[in-house]
Amino acid sequence: MTFASRISIAICGAVLLAMAVVMGASGTQVRQAYLDALRGSLEARIDAVAQSQLEASARALVETERLVRSPRLVATLLSGDREDLLQTAADELRTALEQAGEGAGFVFVSDGAELARSRGITPAAGDAAAAIARTVTRSGEVSRVARTAAGGRPVEILAAAIVDRSEDTVVGALALLRPVRFPEPLRLPDGTALEAGLAIEGVLHGGSLPKAAREQVAAGITRGDPEVRVDDPESPSLAVQRPFSTGGGALVVIASLGPMRTAERRLLATGAGAATLALGVGVASAALLGRGLSRPVAALSTAAERIAAGDFAVRVNGAGQDELSRLGDRFNAMAEGLAQRERFRRVLDAVTDPEVAAELVAGRLDLGGSEQEVGVLFCDIRGFTSLTEGKEPRDVIALLNAHMTLLTDVAYAHGGTVDKFVGDLIMVTFGAPKTGIDDAVRMARCALAMVEARARANEGSAEPIRIGVGCAYGRVVAGCMGSVRRLDYTVLGERVNLASRLCSKAPPMRVWVDSGTRAAVGRHARFSALAPIEAKGFSKPVEAFELSSLEENA
Amino acid sequence: MNPNGKVRRALVLAWAVVMLLSPASAADGVEAPKTGTARITGMVPVLRKKIPSAIKEYGPPPAFKVDKPEPPRSAVWVGSGASPTNPATTTPLRIQQNGYQFRPALAVVRSGTPVVFPNEDQLYHSVFSKSPPRRFDLGRFRKGEEPAAVVMDSPGLVQLFCEVHEHMRANLVVVDTPWFAVTDTEGRFSIEGIVPGRHVVSIWLSPKQTVTQEVDLAPGQTLEVDWSNLAQEPTK
Questions:
Q1: Which CATH code of 3.30.450.20, 1.10.10.10, 3.20.20.450, 3.90.180.10 fits the domain covering A70-179?
Q2: Dihedrals φ, ψ of B160, to 5°?
Q3: Among the four A289, A350, A475, B156, which has the fewest Cβ within 10 Å?
Q4: Phi, psi at residue A140, to the nearest 5°?
Q5: Is residue B234 part of a domain?
Q6: A80 chain-B contacts, CB cut-off 8 A
Q7: Which residues of chain B are at the A interface, by a Cβ-Cβ cutoff of 8 Å?
Q8: What is the pLDDT of residues A406-439, one digit of tens each?
Q9: Which of B100, B102, B129, B161 to mutate to test the interface with A (most CBs of A within 10 A)?
Q10: Cβ contacts of A413 within 8 Å, gap of 6 or more
C-alpha cells in the first residue's frame, strides 16, 4: 500500500466519521426541535377545538335549560299531547338543532318512561338519550352532559329536568342529542395535517387514521397517556388528548408525522449527498496531497539509488519551504559532499596507488614501517634524452603520459602497486602494503608483460620506445615516510637499490632479476645467469639473471 | 266579593234558566223544583301545596311584589251529561291576574261559559292553555288591554299558564252539569237544587287526582257527607 493511499484512507475515514457524528447529532436535534414545535401546534389546536366544542355545547345547554323552564313546554307536557310536545321543542330548540346539524334531535321522558322522540336520530342514540334523561328525572340534577357512541357515531347528550315551577316538581326531562362534529383538518405550513377526533369508551372516532393506528391511539388515550406516539411506518402520528371534565370522552388531535419523515429522508439524502461530495473532495485532496508527498519521496528514492550506483552528480528539486523541500536540500548537500569525497578519492588514487590509498583511507598505514618480503620492479626508457631532444615539453609530457599509462595498466593488471614515477622511470612494488602468496611470480609476469606491451605499442610507431626492466625480491622496509602532514608510502632497502641497478644495467627490452626473484619464482620461469654485477651499497658483486619467459600457469 | 258566592249565584241563575226553558226536565218526575230538589253538603280533602320557590326569584318588593298563591281548594260536581243541555250563561267568569297570581286559582264552570282574563298588575301577563278541552293563547297584554272572552265549550280540565311568570297556574274545571261547587280552604262544600235520583259525585283534588262517589238523593233531602279521607296524597 502506498503512502498516498494510506493517507487517503485515513482522511476519508476521518471525514466519514465526522459526518456521521455530525449528521447523527444534528438529526436527533432537528427531530427533537420538530417534535417540540409540533407539540406546541397540537396543544394550540386541541385548545381551540376544545373551546369551540365546549362553547357549542354550552350554548345548546343554555337553550335546553331555558326550554325546560318554559311554561309553554310544561303546559304542553302536562297536556300529554306528544305531537305538540315535539313541535314545541323543535320550534324552541331550532337554533341548537340547526347548529348541531344532521342527526340532531331530542327525547322526552316523563314518569320514568319515554314520552316522545324526534325523527332523525338513530334508535341506539335515542335510547341512550332516554336513559340519561330518566337518570336526570330521578337524580335531582338540573342537567347532565354525556357522550356516547351508541349508534356508531359520537353523540353529545344534554339532558335537563323539566320542572313544573308552579308545583316545584320534576315532571319529566328533555334530552338534546348533538352529533359531535369535528372541524376540518388544520394544515401546517409543512403539510402536516392536524385532525380532531373523540375517544369514547376505548374507541377513537373521527380522523383518517387506519384501523391499527386508530386502535393504538384509542388504547393510549384510554390508559390516560397525555401523548400517544404511533410509529407505524404507514401512518406515523402523534396524538394528544384533552379529557372532558364532565360527560366522559376525550378530545384527541392527531398530527401525521409523514411530513416529518419526508423531511428526515430529505435531510438524510442531502447529508448522504454532502457526505459523498465530501468523500470525493477528500479522496481528491488526499490523492493530491499524497502525490505531493510521494513524488518528492520517489525522486529522493531514485536519486539515492543513483548515488548508491556512484552517480554523485544527481540532485533533487529542493525549492520550497516545507519539510520535504528541506529534506531535498539536505540530500543535495549530502550528494555534494559525497561528490567532493569522490573527487578527493580520485585525486588520491591518481597521486598514490589505489591500494595504498585504500589502506591509507582505511587508517591502517601509520607513519613508520615494517619489514616484509616485497618484490620491487623498476622500468625506465633507454635513450630517453635522445628521444626527447628537440621536442616541445608538452609533447614530451604527452609521450611520457602515454607510456606511463600503458605501463601502469600492466602493473595494475598484475596486482602491482605503482610506487612512484621519476622522470621516465616507474617503480612498482608487489606485496606492499599487503603481502600476497605469489608476489614474485606476479612481478615476473608483470615485467615480461611490460616488455611485451611496449613491444606491441612500438609496432608501427615512428618513435619506438625501448625499456629496461629490473626486479628484485627480498626483505625491505615498507611504510609511510615523511612527516605527518606530508607523507609517502614507499619501500626502502638494498633490494630496492638492487632493482634500480638491475634496471639500469638491463639491455633494451630485457628483464634482469636478482637471485631473490629467481628463488621465489622457482622453476616456473626460465632464467639465464649473467655475470655478477657491481651494485652500489653491495660490498661484493651480486648475482643477476635474465628472465626470458614464464610458464603460463605458474 | 267572595268568588264562591259569585259562582253559586251564577249557578243558581243558570239552574233557574234551565228550569224555565226546559219543560222536559221538569217532566222527569220533579214535581216541585224548589221544594223537591236535594242538597249535598260536607267535607272533601284539600291537598297540600307548597308555595312555589319561583315567587322569590322575581325583583324585590314593593316594586315587583309577588303575592303568595291562593290557598288550595278542591272542586265538587254532581253528575255529568245527565243534565239537559243548557244554554251558556251570559255572565262571563272573571279570572284576573293580580299580585302575579291567577285569582281564582281554581274554578268550575259549566261548558259554554265565557271566561275573561283581566290583568290587574302593572306589568305584562299572558294567558294560554295547552289543555285538550280548550286550547288558546291570548298572548301578552297589559292592564286595560283585556282580550276577548274565551268560551269553554268542552268539559274537562283547562290548565291556565302565564308565559311570563312560570309559577302562575290556574285550574279551570269545565263540567256538563249545573250542580257544582268549589270548596273552602278546609274542604267544606254545599250544592243545592239537585234533581233527586242516583248521581255520581266527582271530587277534584288536583290535576292528577279526581275521585268519584255515588249518591242516591231523595227529594228534599239534604245529604251530609264526610269524604275527607278519600285522598291518596297528603292533605292539609
A1: 3.30.450.20
A2: -105, 135
A3: A350
A4: 85, 5
A5: no
A6: 132
A7: 49-50, 52-54, 69, 128-132, 159, 161-163, 165-169, 207
A8: 999 999 999 898 888 888 899 999 988 788 888 8
A9: B161
A10: A446, A449
